[in-house]
Write a structure and sequence with these properties.
Number of strands: 9
Radius of gyration: 17 Å
Number of helices: 9
CATH class: Alpha Beta
Order of helices and strands: EHEHEHEHHEHEHEHEEH
Number of domains: 1
CATH superfamily: Metal-dependent hydrolases
Oligomer: single chain
Strand content: 15-25%
CATH topology: TIM Barrel
Distance between the termini: 13 Å
Strand order of the largest sheet: 1-2-3-4-5-6-7
Structural class: alpha/beta
Largest sheet: 7 strands, parallel
Helix content: 25-40%
């Protein structure tokens, strides 16, 4: 039997107020599914009550770090448990994140844009759906250019805001410009398996956007975005096959903020799913 290889690179804790189950439960599923490790990436605190209903409060940050440390200790020798963070990006938040990330030894940091957050919409929605989609991809590229993040999470999430008004082909030039900027930074992008549960039921990004990422040699990290323990590692085999179809021959993950990779063949062989 091949040795475990992959990590769950995107999962949450109850501190975000919309995830269920304790970290030990998530770690147990990762072990059961043949993963080498799990990196918890709960939603970071933000200043001034920004998006407070769906994330930990600033005063809970140290408790989060301690919580993951306790799970790491309980699973020592069985599963590699890592501390990560999912950080919402928007212009002006850079210094907050820089200070936050200096407070703990993070292994993997996700940058994400959540178009649905009321405070974000109030600041950046221009009153037109198409223009909002363009703002999203500009901010996605800016998040990579900030130098703060290892991986950009669910990178075409905006398609779910108004599915009837999402036209990939008309957005292709906008996406291409964003991907050119992202590729220049060396930042990885995520293939998020939870997209199958969204309004447009396909992984994030879509196969078409994934192919555009491959054309630019942008590394890809797989994450299930688990908000329930049972979703840890969910869809990994399908995601690896999608990468193959898009022309990738490797998949990546991060340890101590350094990118590691393996062939898709090796990754598939390592899974017990």
């Amino acid at each position: 039997m091949p040795e475990p290889l992959l990590y769950e690179s995107h999962c949450h804790t109850p501190l975000c107020k919309h995830a269920y189950g304790e970290p030990d439960e998530y770690a147990a599923v990762a072990l059961e599914r043949g993963l080498k490790g799990i990196t918890f990436t709960c939603h970071c605190p933000l200043p001034g009550g920004f998006s407070a209903p769906v994330r930990m409060a600033p005063e809970q940050f140290d408790g989060y770090v301690a919580m993951i440390g306790e799970t790491r200790d309980r699973f020592a020798g069985k599963l590699d448990v890592r501390l990560g963070l999912e950080c919402d990006f928007y212009p002006g938040i850079e210094d907050w994140h820089r200070a936050l990330l200096a407070r703990a030894p993070f292994s993997h940091v996700l940058g994400s844009i959540h178009y649905q957050i009321p405070e974000y919409r109030a600041l950046f929605h221009p009153g037109d759906t198409r223009l909002y989609q363009e703002v999203y991809f500009d901010h996605l590229a800016r998040s990579a250019e900030s130098g703060l993040f290892d991986t950009l999470a669910h990178p075409d999430l905006i398609k779910n805001e108004s599915p009837r008004e999402w036209d990939f082909e008309s957005m292709r030039p906008v996406i291409a410009r964003a991907l050119d900027r992202i590729a220049a930074t060396g930042v990885a992008m995520e293939l998020n398996t939870s997209g199958v549960e969204k309004r447009i039921p396909e992984m994030n990004p879509s196969p078409s956007m994934l192919s555009m990422m491959r054309e630019r040699d942008i590394p890809v990290v797989i994450g299930a975005d688990a908000h329930y323990a049972r979703r840890v590692g969910d869809g990994y085999v399908t995601a690896l096959r999608m990468l193959e179809t898009a022309g990738y021959d490797e998949v990546s993950w991060f340890i101590d903020r350094k990118r590691r990779s393996a062939t898709i063949k090796e990754a598939l062989a390592s899974l017990q799913m």
